[in-house]
Known about the structure:
The complex is a heterodimer of chains A (232) and B (149).
Chain A: H1 9-16, H2 27-31, H3 38-48, H4 52-74, H5 77-93, H6 104-121, E1 140-142, H7 149-167, H8 171-182, H9 187-194, H10 198-218, H11 228-231
Helix pairs in contact in A: 3-4, 4-5, 4-6, 5-6, 6-9, 8-10, 9-10
Chain B: H1 15-20, H2 26-38, H3 40-57, E1 59-61, H4 76-106, H5 111-140
Amino acid sequence: MSTAMALSPLASLAVAGGDARLDQRQDVQNVQGFQNDPAERELVRRARGGDAAARDELAVTHRRAAYLLALQLLGNRDDALDATQDALLRFFSTLDRFRPEQPVRPWLYSIVRNRCRDLMRRGRVRRAEPLDAEPERWRPELVDSSADPELDAERAELRRQVFTALGGLHREHREILVLRDYQDLSYQEIAEVLRVPRGTVMSRLHRARKALGTALRTAGALPPAAKAEGRL
Amino acid sequence: MSVAAACGRRFDEALLSGYLDGALTQHERQVVSLHLEACADCRAELDDMAALRAAARGTAFALPADGEWGELPRTASSRALRLGGWGLLLVWMAVVLGSGLVELMRAAVPAWERVAVAGVVAGLLLLLLSVLVDRLRELRTDRYRRVQK
């Protein structure tokens, strides 16, 4: 791809902040699934044997990742905390059916995702209000900052708008966008969590990205899709 | 794989996402790359997707403070104790309420007092029963039981 290609204003915002246009990771990373850590395997063995310290360590190690996934799926920190606690309880109550040689994260993510689905289906999610009406609950923090405050503000606003639009998407689209773009899982890892063929991941993800773009345009957060001539 | 597109694209549109994520085979990547050289529409779409992905990746969320996590997951022994507690409570209620009701029927009290006490007790039992029914229904429809590797 030519480096001389023109970028849309939106893409320029990302690139100006140092974000690469394309994923620079090796393709092999997208083929691999979750990797099993020998230390984690040992921890699971001990936890299955009733070692309370091992259970505590497993919980502390994974609760942040589980919480972030729940928060990104539910959009509300209280619900996310509840879902995380429930998921951890479920995880430990099903530990006897878990094979220690398997990595913990896909199992736990599946439980978190199921718990979030249940909460949404039962209408127990406290996400009735738009996210931007709950600044104290939805508190994204800037990861990086440049010397340009205006650019920082624009990027922060885009992040807020993207996350808000995510909440309005169909559950399937939201899930796959969260797993790929927020959690940075590979296609293989997403296939493991969602229990779908790897080929389905790419097509569903693409539909989800298009739906997100449409939602942002409908909300006025993005300009209407421009004709190619206008971009060049 | 071939999909008709206004821009002349001859591959599945989803490959654009695969291209963005570095998830294509070498052949697929070459096909998409060649098309992008010539198609400003697809380049623009790819740019927008890349920007939205960058926005998502750049979003960080506040984590709960250490004190907010609540208790750590219960062990099998604590679950067994809880189950035993429920069982004992039910037995106690059955014995106490049963003997109380028998005493009430034997006692020389006006009928309206018997009805009033029986109504309160029946109401409490119905409430307890509703909780138990909900718990049992949750157990039966629990999707997590099937979550396995």
